[in-house]
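## tool: complex_structure
## caller: assistant
## args:
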Amino acid sequence: MAENAPSASTPSVYEARGLKKEFDGGKVAALRGVDLDVREGEFVAITGPSGCGKSTLLQLLGSLALPSEGSLKFRGRSIPDMPDPAHYRSHDIGFVFQAFHLLPTFTVLENVQIPMFEGGLTKSQRRDRAAELLESVGLGHRLTHFPSELSGGERQRVAIARGLANGPSVVLADEPTGNLDSANAEQILDLLLKLHRDRKVTLVLVTHDLGIAGLATRTIRMKDGRVVSETSPSTPSPANHP
Amino acid sequence: MTFFTIVTRGLMRRPVRTGLTLAGISIGIAAVVALVGMAWGYEKSIGKQLDVIGIDMIVSNMGGGIMPKVFDANVEEKVASLPKIKETTSLLMQLISVEDAPMIMVSGRKWGGFTWHQLKVVEGRMIKDEHEPAVVLGRLAAEVLKKKIGDTVLLDSEELNVVGIVDGGSVVENGAIILSLAVMQRVTLNEGKVNFIDIRLQPGTDKNGVTETAAEIKKIFPEGRAVKASEVVGTSQGFRVAQAMSWSTSILAIAVGILGVMNTMLMTVFERTHEIGILLAVGWRKQRVMLMVLFESALLGLLGGILGVLLGAAGLLILETTPAIKGMLEPDLSPKLLITSVLIAVVVGLISGLYPAWRSSRLSPAVAIQS
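## result:
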């Protein structure tokens, strides 16, 4: 939050320059040259209207897709050139999606263990760690339930616990409250803020809700595949005053 | 939860489809077990028969067909005069339809030859002399033909008395109608002809001795061939054809199995594109996703293999009791065949999973997760 704002001298977690992403062989341009810096421990909100490219930007940050042009670095390492992008996805970042994306045939406890298969943990270590994470998001009593038996808010808490499975230093959240009612949305937001505050996790959150964006250290506004403005506590905007 | 849990959960998503695929692969494997089990069983049964009688070498003219061609009986005398040969006897054997039995071995044996020695009379008596128009039946042959002492058996156009039922110590012997060579030659209009000479070698005859003897027999009887008892089945044209047919049918069954499993696994990968996208997004390596798909299809193969072996074994046991097979051979249900069949099924599963696994690893996490 504003009082925790890292200074400009804090090292960059992400550094993007001239980032472009095109689809259909260049017919559709989702990103048209984005420059972006995210520093350690920041909470950056990316906002903008639907189709502005904010989710695409998050996918590139999460190495779920590759940029068409430009450079994108994570702690100085080029993301598109990473020899083992799966390791980056499983250990350095945690992804939280709007649609939760839980595996329906696995219990809550099993869903959280899924990323841990790349972590070299034993069966009991995986189980204990998943139970501990679920406890920390308030779902200790739901371990053996299937996703279909949970409310939307509970599912998103499972997804957050899964995102933290291998102890990442960055959480990328794509409209994490988009599918939730206001009460559940508030709980999820509190949980993400707590993570950011207590675990010193760098949080990059895509939202079209300016109220949520106002809680961030910095807000990046996008339009038509470009960053159109950046708002930080030192440059207040109406969105920073809930 | 282990990786195996994830693999089994994948198969349990669609139990009906998994069940049908298992049924498909198990029928294929059952066919392998039944057909190869019969071919191997035939080989084993003949081997056992020769062993029980104590035959070291066999001379015949394996020109073609299931049974060898007839030749002059006087060849035996010439063969018997060779140095390493201890004893010989000759036979005229035919595999023919007798009354209600579709195929039965009729064995005319030279009177006094060593092929009579191991026969134990279990009911009735032995044939009195070489001209008595009578037969003894192996125990299984008596069962198949539904004959008892005092009945007659119609061989070609002549009715011969059943005077005894014998135990020959092997399924082939027990499945045969046995009579004297002279009567067999007369009934089948093959006067002075035989189609087998069975040989016992001098004790201590080594491999070279066998080869030399075979070469000398070739000189005496150029159209014939002398083979070691242990190789007699392998050199039989009929057996080779039967074996080739059983393997080619098996390969066809296996190919159908491969297509079935591949179809299921491809459907699985297509249906689970979204799930695979999630796995990739949360950091699973492509190799792990591939391994998951491969393990699923290998597990399908393993389960189908086990089921198929059980089905095939049951089928063979039933076949063994049918009149067409009874007394002809003892199906081979050796661990070697059962393990080989299960291994084939696992390999079928693995091969079937290769392409679907490769497809799954080619998915882009961003695209897959949105599907």
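## assistant note: Chain A is about 30% helix and 25% strand. The interface with chain B takes residues 59, 62, 64-65, 84, 86-91, 95, 97, 101-103, 105-106, 109-110, 113-115, 117-118, 123, 126-127, 162-163, 165-166 of chain A (CB under 8 Å). Handing back to user.
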